[in-house]
Sequence to fold (420 residues):
Amino acid sequence: MLTAAENERLTRVGPDTPMGKLLRRYWYPIAGTPELDEEPVKAVKILGESLVLYRDRGGRLGLIGESCPHRRASMMYGIPEKEGLRCAYHGWLYNAKGKCLEQPAEDMEGADSKFKDKITIPAYPVQELGGMIFAYLGPEPVPLLPRWDELVKENAIQTVGFAVIPCNWLQIMENSLDPVHVEWLHRHFDNYVLERLGKPELKHPIKHHIKLDFDLFEYGMIKRRVWSGGTEQDVEYRIGHPVLFPNILANVGYQFRVPVDDEHTLHVWYKSKPLPEGVHTEEKNRTKVYDVPVVTAGPRGRAQWSLVDNNSGQDMVMWYTQGPTADRTKEKLGTSDKGIILYRKQLVENLEKMERGEDPMNVFRDPAKNLCLKIPTEKDGGGIAERRLRAVGGRKNTGSSTKYDPLDNQEVSELIASPK
Fold:
């Protein structure tokens, strides 16, 4: 149980809050690269700030404030130019550094020719990697964008799924340090869902957790488990599931939890699969973006069973039904929650490092150490333990967002040929 003050300290993400200052030390995925091929301007919100992401006609990316400093009109409707984004209202032009380049109506006779030099708009660094666009909203010097191994696979096809979950980022991350929920939510409850859907033949055999361990490692924490009938030689204990500080679950691909504001989180599911030998495709065809529906109660308070027959749907219901921000003053943690307790301790330790003027964990500055950050996962152990590969409604219904992921629902050759 946390005090109200401790809960506030760990959950609030505004620019003047302790956690907001810590989280601004990291890069976050905010869009899939193909999204700007379809629409060159996109509104985004991250860490409580409303921004606009764009690609100008010169091919350069920019991330600037959502409101034009002139009359506060939205830059979401801005016009991409050769260098920057032009406000649709009066034509003020801003580059990716936030500098105002032109003010057409202020060029008239008698106008202050230096007025534009006094005007800036908030602007932040953005980079592309692995088919996604990442943003950094923190202080300088800007750290390196981490080159996690899944993001830098050569000649690979990537899929990126997005959903905005109506709850605070921390209750999503704490789920990653809670192995026991798999046994109940993704086994017992999933069997009940299948019963409601009239598909009892797809029910799981039920296993029980008999051992849990959590270890600190270079990039975060590793959670380990042994199921009934298993041993410590099983891949889920021997290699385990890494959680990369502060906001990434690494397993079959990555799950990024991006704080939008105090009560919303952009959840990103990312997978990368090398193309078959001898198969190559243009880079622009390698990334496929998809949406994961957010499960809600129907208009008359009835469960949407067809949306909770998969791990992503089941998880998000448990996340946001704790409330927009979970009240941890009322929780009753047990011995199975030691991973959550350890993660909270890790958050506090890194807050204290930041407050001492030190770089927190996973802030990278040495390019030689950032070429490819290898993360061991279950697939390195010769298989994916406990992974379901079964068809439900014509689609695979395994964990994560697999039900909606085109990588698991189409042949690679079809994906390469697909225009989106």
Residues 384-398 have pLDDT under 50 and may be disordered.
